[in-house]
Amino acid sequence: MQKPEMTPEYRKTLVQMMESQAYRELAAAQMFGYGLQFIPEIKNLKFMTWHITEEMEHYQDVAKMYESFTGTSVEPVVNKRLREKPIAFAQSWFELAMAQFLYDRGGFWQLQEYENCSFEPYRTVIQKIIKEERGHQDLGMQMVVDLCKTGGFEAEKQPLFDKWFKQGMLSFGRPNTDGNKYAISVGLKKRDSGAVMQDFLNDIKPAVKACKVRFPDPKAIGLECPPGLDWSL
User: Fold this and answer.
1) How confident is the model over 5-48, as pLDDT tens digits?
2) What CATH class has 3-216?
3) Is the Cα torsion angle 213, 219, 175, 108 positive or negative in sign?
4) Where do the H-state alpha helices sit in 36-171?
5) CA 4: distance to chain centroid?
6) Whole-number Å distance between alpha carbons of 67 and 33
7) Residue ranges per structural domain of the chain
8) Percent of the chain's residues with pLDDT above 70
9) What is the per-residue DSSP string for 189-219?
10) Which of 130-134, 172-176, 204-208 has the highest mean pLDDT?
11) What is the dihedral sign for C-alpha 114, 118, 122, 128?
């Protein structure tokens, strides 16, 4: 679909998608950057600094696409959203690992819903990001599992899991909305947010069991989820 053929609703939805993606990329870079101070080993420090650089490159990719499409910079939009809805910063190495596991993994599942996007420039950018993100999806999960197995984080592991699980689930947006239905109908995304939530749950269940934590009650942490999700472990 070329730009002149777009309906106002298609264009508005696409702009919102770009702005949201830019926000997530920059928020992740800032959150992981703040967490560098807590990393105890060179090996993990190298990984996280590389990851921050990658997130910044993804932010730049989305920002360039946005400017090409709209003729304006996305930076004021993203900076305003970060002021109004700042991402939480991890306060320990264990929490940073939990964030890398759940926030980053949630974002990866969210990205895959746009890999066949009907707007070719967005599809190209998202496919590039997915390819680069796929290489390190298991690292955060393994860090959390290994840390939990030491027995040194029994008091904080469930509260921190709940906190970052919520952030991961929020990546998908609210389920069963008119916006979801429209984006699916015009090929901007594949499926409703509720279906992606289930895939995310299924994906992390082995780690949840290995860490000996449980899924929180979604209402208790302020999550809107569709009925019928399989939370069983």
Assistant:
1) 689 999 999 999 999 999 999 999 999 999 999 999 999 999 99
2) mainly alpha
3) negative
4) 42-70, 75-84, 93-112, 120-134, 137-149, 154-170
5) 31
6) 25
7) 3-216
8) 97
9) -SS-HHHHHHHHHHHHHHHHHHHT--PPPGG
10) 204-208
11) positive
